[in-house]
Automatic annotation (TrEMBL):
This is VOC family protein. Residues 2-121 form the VOC domain. It comes from Streptomonospora mangrovi. The lineage of its organism: Bacteria, Bacillati, Actinomycetota, Actinomycetes, Streptosporangiales. Pfam families: Glyoxalase. The keyword Cell membrane does not apply. The keyword Hydrolase does not apply. Coiled coil: none annotated.
Amino acid sequence: MRLAATRIFTDDLDALVAFYETATSIGAARLHPMFAELRTPSGTLALAASATVPLLGEGVAEARANRSVALDFLVEDVDATYRALRDVVADVVNEPTDMPWGNRSLLVRDPDGNLVNFFTPSAEAARARFADPTPE
């Protein structure tokens, strides 16, 4: 099994697409006027208009209601990301901060209030996290 995408339902698709395109420097593929994808090597962030929810089942999802999930984006330099986003992000939850587990993290909220974490692991944390587990 492979996680194919994470999807966010929104009442303002254009605003959310613009935010994630700016935040990630990735152009969204607009597959339909009510659906867009930002594709990365490790997964896809799908953005869908709330008008698509009834196609899945009445009331199965609600825009702007998430308070339990964070999107994590690994970036090369979290401080540079902060400088680039400072004038675009309305809600900075936590400026770049060194976390006890070895990441330097920037927490913001997207226009729908979803928590977004941009992080850069310390050199030691990166070696531990991304080390090849296969023995030589």
